[in-house]
Structures are given as structure tokens and as C-alpha cells.
């Protein structure tokens, strides 16, 4: 997800003592029948009045059970039997002026689905996925309802294979177009790069005749990339808002959480980040996590549940959400972040974990241990999941905010830094190469959704709308207006090393349980886990889509 929300200049604290979906969508009737209560949550605010899409909850990144003697990293603490599952958070009822059959509102709640993974003759119940994403369903929605996408979307292509390995420092080798629509897109991009607008318009017109946001994978991808090229040829008129404001809006953040819930590549990457954070806490009574994008709180809810299983249990957990006031975030974002803190505190109280959630509004140059409230006796971990790629580097600004942030994080002396990013060469590559790379990456990603979301799923429509916004920013914008600047892991590795970090290898002790967890989700032969350069890549049909690593 994007960067953190801006908070107030002073820290706000939330003290507390101290939901998951299978990869196929469930019906709205099943989701809304699971319970209800009182309250209002941020993710519901993100949807807005009249939302009809069912946004499934996500849950933790626990790994398969391991015997203590075989468990040097302590992963067994993440697994618990069915009867020891923590109770679900209550459902919340939100007032709304939108469509609703009962009480004029939407139901919001958490759900956990359990999977069984056999190890020898035993079986462990696992919570799959990123937790704490709220299920928002219009009370009047029925199972058969389908919605048109918020804007023209696109879907994958069947050609998402030949990506370079995640650790390569060179650009991914993008396969040549293998079908007419890909060739037309390539021709249009080449014409744009050459300034031949007439040829570009002609190619785009031909692409649009073959494209459909509700068609097969190739047709959806064609619709997405044609919209991105059209936006480059005819940018929207200035409105006073930041050109990338739609990437920070509540709807985009909510749809991004749906993507993280639905895609094993994103879900498992975040699970690995939590494992790195848990290792930082081993042997320490206090854990402090600094996060530059808390989002819906899903990843941290999983972390709370994992800590609740540890013996001895850490005496306290502190989560500090850092919000950079420079980001173009909506005015309601600060309240949304406070709501996330409240929900995490309630979850921690149920789990028996002492939690303090704080928000600080700081620019990178202002980061230090004092401003973050770091204490000498706590283990400090920094979470950089899907954060760095949205921070400008030296190609955008001589100040190089990306390296400045890394230097500041290094000065905090954290025990672990978790890094998760999309695997795509989309930063400094020339326009034509960047366009080809975006076609290959988003084609594979959209194609992979065929295995996890139904073709007419409302969730899928919202996810694809979010991917369309990301692709448009990657292809159509330049300079400070382009905030989507993904890199290959090889470049992240070089940048982290230059900032003074050393890798914390994620070897077979992590990779094998992650593979077992992926296998437990059912027959999804297109997904795979790849070990490379001490990190883990998560791929679809041979193309790595996300990469997770840990640093110190």
C-alpha cells in the first residue's frame, strides 16, 4: 500500500492491553451472516456511502507447525490448534445513506478462515493471509449481484513468463509481443516515444476495438494499457489536486488491501515481513515496530496474534505509524489512522498483548530515536512493505528522499528492517522499455487473479481499477507526478547495501514453511516461491511479482 497517513504534529497514543479469506471469494450472504455489532471502521469510510462491493477480510501470515527441535527460528509459535483461535472481533454497524435493507447501514467485520496443513501424521490449523481487513457489504446485496468496474480496467495476458530473476540488477527481459493486441500496444508506445501522435492514435483505436474490461485476460490488459497510453497523450486538466492524489484516496487504499488479500504473491510477502519482525523480538521483553504505511492494520493484527502465541510472551508491543505530511492524502486520513489504532488496541486486548499505538507526523529528515519514542530496552524493527517504491530517488530530486529515508532508518539502529516490493523495472527505464515492462508485469498479475477471484467478482473489479491507476501513473506520468517507481530486487539490494544495511538471509527454514503454506491453499500450480540472494520471490507462471527480504 501507499505511504502512511499524516497525523498531528504531536503523537497520539492508543493504549490497550493486551480475518482471512480463502483465495476464492465467498458470497456476500455468507459474509454478512457471520455477525454484527456497533461502531464504524476506517475501511468502511474508505468505501463510502452506497458501496455494493464485498471486501473480504484478510488474516495472519502464520506458517506451518514445526517441532521445537526443528525450529531454530521459532516459527512454531505462530501456529495454534483450532480450539485456541482467538475470538473474532465483533462486527460493526455503520450508519449510511446508501442502499441497505436493514437499519440503513453497511455491515463491517473480521473473518478468519482456517486451513489444514499436514506435517507427518499431524495437522496444524493455520490462519492464512493478512488479517484485519474489514468485510464491507451492503446489506441489500445478494449473491448474484455483479458490478461494473469503477473505471475502465484491464486484465492479464497469458504471456507473463520470462522475467529475469528477482535478484538481477539489470532490467527484466520483457518478452516480445505474442498476440495482435500486444503488438498494437507496442506499436502505440513506440509511436508515443517517437512523438508520432497520429500513428499512436491509430494504434490505440485498433487496440480499443479488441479490448474489453470484462473480457478475457488479454482483453482486460489491452483496456488497461490503452487507457494508460491515452492518459499520457491527453493528460487530465489541472484541478488543483496532486496528479497522483487518486493513488492515496480511500478507495484506492481499500482496493489495494483487497489485492493483498486475494494474491498469494502479496499475502506471503507480508507474512515473511512479519517473520523478520518476530525474529527481531526474540529474547527481548519489548518490541517496537516503526511503520511508514500501516494501512488498514492488517499486517499488524497478524503480528499481534502471533505474539500472543509466543512463550514467553513479550511484555509489550509498541507500533509507531509515521505519516509524512508531504504526501497528498485526504483530510479524513488522520482520523482513519486513529481508527486503525483503536481497532488494533481492541484486538490486542482480546489477545492479551499489551499494545501502545502512536502516530507521528514527520518528514524523513526529522526521524530520530527521540522523535519516535524509542526506548533503550526495546527491540526495534522497521517495516518497509510497499513503501520505498513510492518515495522519489535521485532521478527525481537532487535531495534523493529515498536514500535520505534509508540513512535515517539506519541511524535508528533497528534489529531488523523488512522490505517487500513489487518486482518490476519501472523507475528509471526509458518510456518504451517501462511501458513494455508494465505490460508484462501487470499482465502476469492480472492473469493470476483468474486463479483467486471470479471473473465477475465485484472485488476483482475494484482490484483491477486500482491496478489500472497504478499502471497509468507508471506509464503516463513523469517527474514528481510519477509516484509508482518499482525496482527489481537487485537494485534494492544495492541501495540497501550502500545505505549501510547487511542482509538477514531468509533460508530454507523460512522458504519451506512458506511453500507449505502456499500448497495448503489448494491447487494453484501457477504460483511458486523462489529463493534468491537471501530473499524470497513470489511468482506467477515463472515471473516474480513480489520480493521479500530482511536487513539489519
From TrEMBL:
Region Leucine repeat II (LRII), annotated ranges: 339-371
Pfam families linked to this entry: GRAS (PF03514)
Region VHIID, residue ranges: 256-321
Chain intervals with Basic and acidic residues compositional bias: 21-43
Biased composition range(s): Low complexity: 156-173
Sequence motif VHIID, residues: 287-291
Keywords per UniProt: Transcription, Transcription regulation
InterPro entries named among the record's database cross-references: TF_GRAS (IPR005202)
Assigned protein family: Belongs to the GRAS family.
Protein name in the entry: Uncharacterized protein
Organism: Ananas comosus var. bracteatus (red pineapple)
